[in-house]
Design a protein that fits this description.
Layout lengths: L2 H8 L21 E2 L5 E4 L3 E2 L21 H16 L14 E4 L6 E4 L6
Antiparallel strand pairs: 1-2, 2-3, 4-5
Length: about 120
C-alpha cells in the first residue's frame, strides 16, 4: 500500500483522519523504516503495529519528530533519561543504546541520543 492508498483508508478512521491535513498536501511524507524497509512510523499520523509496546517488550525505539533539531534533541534526551529508569540492562536498569540517524539525501549522520550536556 502506498501513501495515497493509505490516506484513502485513514480518511474513514474517526481517530486518525483529523491528522491527515498536516502532511496530506506535502510533496514528501516523513516515514521511518528499518534496515529491512519495514515501515515503523508515518509521523504524525500513525505508528506501525510492529512497534507496539506490550508487557513482553524488550527493546524500545524512542522517536521524536519536529522542525527544530535542537528542540528535538532536548525532548529526546528527557524522554530517554526518564524511560531508562524502567529499563533493565546487563549491569543496571539505566540502559540506553544510541542509534545512528542517517538523513536521506544528505551527508548528515548523527548518533542519538547523545546525552551530552551543553
Amino acid at each position: 500500500m502506498n501513501c495515497v492508498e493509505l490516506f484513502d483508508v485513514l480518511k474513514d478512521d474517526m481517530g486518525l483522519k483529523k491528522f491527515l491535513h498536516i502532511i496530506e498536501d506535502e510533496p514528501k511524507y516523513p516515514v521511518f523504516y528499518d534496515a529491512n524497509r519495514t515501515v515503523l512510523s508515518l509521523p504524525p499520523i500513525i505508528n506501525s503495529h510492529t512497534t507496539r509496546i506490550t508487557q513482553k517488550t524488550k527493546n524500545v525505539f524512542i522517536e521524536v519528530t519536529g522542525t527544530d533539531l535542537n528542540k528535538c534533541k532536548i525532548v529526546l534526551q528527557i524522554l530517554t533519561a526518564q524511560f531508562s529508569e524502567h529499563c533493565k540492562g546487563k549491569n543496571n536498569k539505566f540502559c540506553i543504546e544510541p542509534v545512528e540517524v542517517v538523513y536521506e539525501g544528505t551527508d548528515l549522520k548523527i548518533k542519538e541520543p547523545s546525552l551530552e550536556i551543553h
